[in-house]
């Protein structure tokens, strides 16, 4: 069951999703609190696991990553050891930036970053398909991203 969130908690979470570097004073102002109670609320939200961490979002093109793709992967089988080995592969491969188990024809959808299409092909052939874990894959290049990150809706 999700924790109860009041208006101040929601204000803090909304603001932090858009500015993870906000000062404690800015956060306190947004939530209508003084800094000490604001700090305690943020710590509580972290302890509850609602705030999982703080990161810097980087521009993939400025990092030389000009090929982004969604790869739908179907595993060879659904044995526990196959799924565990695939999970280890996903965790250790830096080019795989997102992974989700999905319903439908494929078992997983991966978001993969590479320098260029040739680098992506090399990674798919040598990094994923050569493992013997994947029976079939289908790759969809991302042509343009119109929304790459959005705050989670704070429904209440």
UniProtKB/TrEMBL annotation:
Domain HTH asnC-type: start-end pairs: 5-66
GO-annotated cellular components: cytosol
Membrane-spanning intervals of the chain: none
GO biological process: regulation of DNA-templated transcription; response to amino acid
Keyword Protein biosynthesis: no
Keywords in alphabetical order: DNA-binding, Transcription, Transcription regulation
Top-level taxonomic group: Bacteria
GO molecular function, one term: sequence-specific DNA binding
Cited CDD domains: HTH_ARSR
Signal peptide: none
Pfam families recorded: AsnC_trans_reg (PF01037), HTH_24 (PF13412)
Record's protein name: Transcriptional regulator, AsnC family
Lineage of source species: Bacteria, Pseudomonadati, Pseudomonadota, Alphaproteobacteria, Rhodobacterales
